Amino acid sequence: MATTVKQNGTAKKENASVKKEVQKKLTDEAIGKAASTEKPVASKKATISLNDRIQNFEKLRGLATQRERLTQTLNELTKFNYNQGDSASFYIRDSHNLEFKTTNTNLI
Length: 108
Prior knowledge:
Blueprint: E1 3-5, E2 11-13, H1 16-31, H2 50-79, E3 90-93, E4 99-102
Antiparallel strand pairs: 1-2, 3-4
């Protein structure tokens, strides 16, 4: 390998021969002369039992239902047009009939 000297005095090794080897290997593989040292990797698929598949299906169905309800609620909230004037009010009532009421438009 040849070395070249830069102006600041540090030497840099050229790796032209390495590049040529890599290029030759790539062209051989492209032509179809695959290296005999490489072995094909056998992929192993894990067998999934029927019960596991049913559980995964039920879980995905529940997630799909939850996403559908969430999308519907989001659409209803975006359709909701509240007024910034004095006529806006917000009510919350719990199971014990305790009520929270506000007309503060900053809170709403």
